[in-house]
Model the fold of this input.
Amino acid sequence: MEKKKLGRPRKIESPEQLHEIFKAYKTYVKENPRYKYTLSHRTGDMVPEPLECPLTMEGFEVYCWQKFDLTVSNYFENKHKGYDDFYSICTHIRREIRNDQISGGMVGQYNASITQRLNNLKEQVENTNIEQPLFPDVEN
Done:
């Protein structure tokens, strides 16, 4: 006897389909830069400078909602274990986004301090305060 699935049907039917949507998101992000306007010293005009946008998980979620009217957070969170077959592709997508942010931060393409904070990358500095008595020879 076939087991019936409960809940709404999936809008993304396979991990391969999610991967195709992610590849479309990457293309969209990299082909649509943001612009920073700077003053040209030669002409005195404001000149647009294209800036490559980093990949972000939030950006991917917004892209999926706007382009396909779907919420992908369920596939990534997998709270009720209904998306186990998407685990591998979701892990790959997270890592590819993180790699884009980290490598972009390392080469100065993106703001390094924001990249560090977004990816929980920080240098651990151990601060220990050892109280030194003012007069070590004097007993209390």
